[in-house]
Amino acid sequence: MSVEQANRTAIERMMASHPMLKTVARAGDVIPGLEAKKILHAGPPIEWSRMSGPLRGAVVGALLYEGLASSREDAIHLVERGEIAFSPCHHHGVVGPMAGVTSASMQVYVVEDEVHNRHAYSTLNEGYGKVLRYGAFAPEVLDKLRWMNEEMAPILRVALEERGSIDLRALLAEALHMGDEGHNRNKAGSLLFLKHLAPAIEHTAKESALAADVLAFLGDNALAVLNPVMAACKLMAEAGAGVERSTVVTTMARNGTDFGIRVSGLGDRWFTAPAEVPDGLYFPGFSSADANPDIGDSTITETAGIGAFAMAAAPAIVTFVGGAPEEALNASLEMYEITTGEHDHFTIPALGFRGTPVGIDIRKVVELGLTPRVNTGIAHREAGVGQVGAGLVRPPMSLFEDALIAFAEKYLEDI
């Protein structure tokens, strides 16, 4: 099989993937390998000594939430004594926005690819601001987590049982036609998500006041659908993994220190380089001096062909990440240059319903000197502060150069 044939196979598998949101469940009960004293995190593998402020803060918050520690100091001592294990979310079929921290007692969305018989998972979205995924762990942050996991999650689970699975591929396709790009702008998708769930929540909830609180929480959170969308994108990208001689990128992820990628034809090997600080808009009182380098698994959206790759469908996103509306159009046009094909299911009205660019090809990235665009939130560099802005970032070129060299060493005759 030639590289071109392999890449076509990879993206055909990605586009054939059909992710369906099935239920909500306790993470430790459904995620393979997630034990009581193991914390999953965003991005490539990393040890505590190299973790960024927001990732450390989220770890502290998770240990407090789990009752494994009683204070920040206690949590740090627990880690430094080697009593807590760490593993990337991606190694367990999980994706998490920003710090991505997932622990055993947290509730997760369970998404199934009915074509390839795979599952992926992601936690419930907390909304904007001072939240765990941005490294905050104040009492009010943990109180919100407890309410979400102990009060809201059971209602979502019963509602999904009542109405049946939600077709996330169809939801995304519709949201792209309503002004979303699926990463930083999910206003339409979150409202569609609420539309699917609201009747079942109203019908099955035993307490009307709690049902009203859940509906209000989901309705007020324009990122509510992001987490199940990320799990759907994980399944799409994973479907294209493991294709011999394919140069298609199947993972892009950041842990706040390193940016990492994995390539279909190179298996589970990570290629990493220092993550960069995003260029964007900051909340009042903050600037780039406060920003942590890029963090999160949410680049799985760009990997699957949405996010910054679909910005032409969401010109209003520039009010959140910076720039002018025409730059949103140019962003998508640029990404066609480094991808293998155009998506069968995700289309862009402003481009005559052209399919979004899908299947990042490391050869084209290196040849053109053009790295993928990424939409992202910006976390404060210190633990406990939270989100300080949003913007745009690109992965380091060295990732793709290193991956191409490794590919050449493995498949020398194909380069």
Please tell me about this protein's structure.
With 415 residues, the protein is an alpha+beta fold. The chain has helices at 3-16, 27-30, 53-65, 72-80, 139-163, 168-176, 187-204, 208-220, 226-239, 300-303, 318-321, 325-335, 362-368, 397-410, and strands spanning 19-26, 38-41, 85-88, 107-113, 118-123, 166-167, 249-255, 258-263, 271-274, 279-282, 295-296, 339-348, 354-360, 374-379, 387-393. It contains 14 helices and 15 strands. The strands form five sheets. It has a four-stranded antiparallel beta sheet with strand order 5-4-1-6. A four-stranded antiparallel beta sheet has the order 9-8-7-11. Strands 10-15-14 form a three-stranded antiparallel beta sheet, with no helix packed on it. α6 (168-176) crosses α7 (187-204) and α7 packs antiparallel against α8 (208-220).
SSE inventory with pairings:
Blueprint: H1 3-16, E1 19-26, H2 27-30, E2 38-41, H3 53-65, H4 72-80, E3 85-88, E4 107-113, E5 118-123, H5 139-163, E6 166-167, H6 168-176, H7 187-204, H8 208-220, H9 226-239, E7 249-255, E8 258-263, E9 271-274, E10 279-282, E11 295-296, H10 300-303, H11 318-321, H12 325-335, E12 339-348, E13 354-360, H13 362-368, E14 374-379, E15 387-393, H14 397-410
Name the CATH class of the largest domain. Answer: Alpha Beta
Provide the residue-averaged pLDDT: 95
Biggest sheet statistics? 4 strands, antiparallel
Provide the structure class.
Answer: alpha+beta
Determine the CATH superfamily of the largest domain: Enterococcus faecalis V583 domain
Spatial shape: globular
The N- to C-terminal Cα distance equals 13 Å
Helix content: 25-40%
Q: Strands across the major sheet, in which order?
A: 5-4-1-6
Contiguous low-pLDDT stretches (5 residues minimum) are none
Global Rg? 20 Å
SSE string? HEHEHHEEEHEHHHHEEEEEHHHEEHEEH
Could you name the CATH topology of the largest domain? Answer: Enterococcus faecalis V583 fold
Helical stretch count? 14
Number of domains: 2
| Percentage of residues in DSSP E strands | 15-25%
